[in-house]
Amino acid sequence: MQDFARASALYGFDSLAEEYGLPHKALLKEVGLPENTLDHLQGLVSYRRFLALLELSAKQAGDPLFGLKLGLRQGITVLGPIVYLLNNASTVGEALSELRQYFHLHMGAAHVEVSAYGDKIQLAYRVLDPKQPGINHGAELALGVGRKMLKTLMGHNWTPHPMLLEHAPQAPLQAYRDVLGIVPRFNSDTTALLLDPEELELPLSEADPALHQLIRAHLDTLQRLSDLELPGYVSNLMRDLLPQGRVKVDQVAECMAMSRRTLQRRLGESGTSFQKVLDDTRQNMALRYLRDSQLQVTQLSDLLGYADLSAFSRAFTRWFGMPPSRWTPDNIG
Predict the structure, then answer these.
(1) Which N-terminal stretch is annotated as signal sequence (predicted)?
(2) Residue ranges of the alpha helices (H) in 157-273?
(3) Which domains does the chain have, with CATH numbers?
(4) What does the alpha-carbon distance between residue 258 and residue 252 come to, in Å, rounded to a whole number?
């Protein structure tokens, strides 16, 4: 699922957008993301649409440093359970090594590297498809997050080293200095934060070896289960799309910025199919609405995207062994 990032990568987007007077839900909708994306931060979003959102927001805000400011605002919290692993590593070097190992659980569209860079160590950010529009905003956001992460790990007295960016400045250099306190090195051969080698040996004061081992085991489990999250993400999309009419595989694939064939293949690898996810989603929605609302059967049929009432009635009978006209809350526990 290389095009995906956790929706947590948009943590704080709503508040920053509103500071610029921008309606965050309208921005999400314009780039093809569900308006309730920020209500499900553990879900997945298309990285291409994530970049499009940053680019659109920067343009409408009139601030080319929108992405950088969002990354600095987010800091380490966007990494979810990976945060606890890093905080309980024994040294900065161990924390960065584990960030490299588990970063794909946060974002499948990019990875981080920890390697030598001259006499320094680089914490580099690599996007798998660097030709995407908005990539510069994404890079600045990532390094903003990385800078706050290093300050969290090494303490507030840590003095930042240069920030390297492969692109040209998106704003006057003074604007970067005002935000960062330093001016990044632009047009570099890497996108990275630099550290002194000895900084990797710095111990982390909050390290708890037992808790560290427990969290690592949890992340290893998540790593094995990550492919199983795709059906849940598709189902969430269907819930948003069904009230607008019939949901088709091409429509969902477009929302996820992947081809129809790739979506079907990925669902097959997860042990299901598009039709099964659609059927299960409709069944769960039908049960919830019948229990918790006063909708008429005809209204429910429309809400679930059926072409006509008879098609809904046949599906309902298959699910629950009776037509919707005979259903009562006591029929199903």
Answers:
(1) none
(2) 173-180, 209-225, 229-241, 249-255, 260-269
(3) 65-207 (no CATH), 227-331 (1.10.10.60)
(4) 9
Task: Name the residue type at position 325.
Answer: S
CA distance 126 to 137: 13
- The C-alpha atoms of residue 134 and residue 205 are separated, in whole angstroms, by 38
How far is the C-alpha of 246 from the C-alpha of 243, rounded, in Å?
A: 8
Exposed (0-12), middle (13-18) or buried (19+): which is 70, by Cβ within 10 Å? buried
DSSP-derived secondary structure for 176-203: HHHHHSS--B-S-SS-EEEE-GGGGGPB
**153 Cβ partners below 8 Å, 6+ apart?**
86, 87, 92, 95, 202, 204
Q: How far is CA 147 from the centre of its chain?
A: 19
The answer to whether 127 and 109 have CB atoms below 8 angstroms apart is yes
Q: By C-alpha distance, which of 1, 122, 3 is closest to 51?
A: 3
d(CA 90, CA 86): 9
Which DSSP helix (H) or strand (E) runs through 4? strand 4-6
Contact of 5 with 47, CB cutoff 8 Å: yes
Structural contact between residues 186 and 63, judged by C-beta atoms closer than 8 angstroms = no
Grouping H, G, I as helix, E, B as strand and the rest as coil, residue 274 is: helix
Question: Is the Cβ–Cβ distance between 49 and 43 less than 8 Å?
Answer: no
**pTM of the entire predicted model:** 0.70
